[in-house]
Amino acid sequence: MIIIGITGTIGAGKGTLVEYLNQKAHFRHFSVRDFLTQEILRRQLPVNRDTMTHMANELRARHSSSYIIDQLYQQAVQHNDNAVIESIRTPGEVVSLRAKDNFFLFAIDAEPAIRYQRIVARASETDQVDFQTFLANEAREMQTSDPNKQNLRQCIAMADYHFDNNGSRRELEQQLQNTLEHIL
Q1: pLDDT recorded at residue 66
Q2: Is residue 17 part of a domain?
């Protein structure tokens, strides 16, 4: 069983990597967003980026910095298939997954203006923001000294493979295919 974790900036293309891994390479998908959405709905709170961030930070502070990813990893183990876990946001999550066999961390990024256009187009419940709010959300998630809060900068630095998604979808898929040839 191979586990691929996906980290990256907002709107960089994490979902596109997951879609390719799921459809073309038959990896089972486990989503932090879905995990958090279930808990948010259970608590009857609004589903938005602020609530997701707060919920994730609360769960990590209560249990451990890797709690959410550990829960998703346990689900993956039960299926015993190659799996992709989206989206890794704390160094503790990376450390926890690195302790497992056959784990690879992928990081993806693109220019902010391109990423903003993508989130506007996907129009999910967490993406209904103006460009300044988008940049502020990202700044909040990029770096912290609190191990239970998001630190995308450090997670990206810890990645085994980096993907530049400033080009076309086809170019990204080619980068991913080349990487998969090395690890599968």
Answers
A1: 96
A2: yes
CATH of the domain at 46: 3.40.50.300
**162 contact partners, CB below 8 Å, separation of at least 6:** 106, 107, 108, 109, 156
At 95-129, the pLDDT tens digits run 999 999 899 999 999 999 999 999 999 877 677 88
Q: How many CB atoms lie within 10 A of CB 166?
A: 13
H helices, E strands: number in the chain: 9, 5
Q: How many domains would you assign to the chain?
A: 1
Q: Side chain identity at 26, as an amino acid letter?
A: H
Domain containing 21: what range?
3-175
Q: Is 181 among the domain residues?
A: no
> Does residue 105 fall inside a structural domain?
yes
Give the Cβ contact number of residue 13 at 10 Å: 25
